[in-house]
Amino acid sequence: xxxxxxxxxxxxxxxxxxxxxxxxxxxxEEARCGRIFNGRRPERxxxxxxxxxxxxxxxxxxxxxxxxxxxxSVRAGGHSWAAWSLRDEALLIDLGGLRxxxxxxxxxxxxxxxxxxxxxxxGLLTQQGLMFPGxxxxxxxxxxxLLQGGMGWNCRGWGWACQRIEAIDAVTADGELVHxxxxxxxxxxxxxxxxxxxxxxxxxxxxxxxxxxxGALTRSSFFYPAALFDEVxxxxxxxxPRLAPSVExxxxxxxxxxxxxxxxxxxxxxxxxxxxxxxxxxxxxxxxAPFERCPVRERALQEQVLVPTTLAEExxxxxxxxxxxxxxxxxxxxxxxxxxxAIPALREAFVxxxxxQSFSLWFGMAPLHPLPDxxxxxxxxxxxxxxxxxxxxxxxxxxxxxxxxxxxxxxxxSEGLFLADSDFTTRPAxxxxxxxxxxxxxxxxxxxxxxxxxxxxIHPETPINVNPWSxx
Length: 472
Fold this sequence. Notes:
26% helix; 472 residues; 14 helices; 8-stranded antiparallel sheet; alpha+beta
């Protein structure tokens, strides 16, 4: 069969099962934006959008793009803050119709499609006494989450979620479906662990190593007045490297109108929280005991100590903190600065939030685990991120300006940023060490020599993987 006949006149492949929308056709706009989590929808318009329902659709889509001279972008969960899947004049291949979850309990491996969320996966795994450290926000698809590294549940103690990728199935730029593991296409697997939107293939299936569900998931939370920021954070900087590896530790600045227990407060507050993934209540009690020794504990507005919890309850709390149908601007920084430098730089981001729904978080990662050989190669003792959340378009400029001001204050002390909470169209920075960056370019040139797949969403004249504030 000739290529012309195979592609039915060059427009719609005969073997496609999923829907293909060319720009201007009915249904195109819903396909373009319907699965984007952020209420701010960029004015970028793909030439066509394929709602794939199978791996065969993905293969056919890549070959269609090649036949039409189109570049390819990919959407898994639609949770990218910058909506990097939306590229002008590209073929956007949307993986939302691929919904596989298949557990091989004996091998301890789950085979899962990229658009499946961590909460969906864990909803099934927890019934088997298992879990996977997916994203905290329940709406995050596993595809973008894992490709960007995966700062999942108890990343501090268990390591990055992408370290649990045993293998992938992926469609390459030549339109072939390949299996990549430690022995087959190992460079493709290396890149899938951290390349993020710069990955140069379409993952259709992850093979993920699961872990036992902890026997005593327990939370201790302390709500402090924002005025105590310096005292609480000074203690936390000193204490958090000594916490048990079963403890996920976070400090959250938040403010707005509501009840403390729903993580919205009538005045700005600082939440100090430890979430223990221990096996027994006794272990959890010992692991969380340091939080009860904070020197200003008696001045806490409210505390919830040693509360048994479940992943389902934690996901519900995250869903309240990350509401749908809202507008978001998000940025982040890796920090190794000492407390005397970091605390004054961070203070305003925690105590002067621009809206009731907004929040800033400090996530302790120390002591750092050495990273295995994978594309993800940048981390630090502290992860800072700010999530500005609002509803009305007329607040766009004010909210985005507030975030930019905070990041300008913090970035001189930053090592760089984490891809998942970034927007290079607003503020690019380093996200990978130079040796890994150069290797990634070499692997990309081998697998995608013509640049079929879109890479990082950034202005073409802007340097990539550098910290602008450190350049001469």
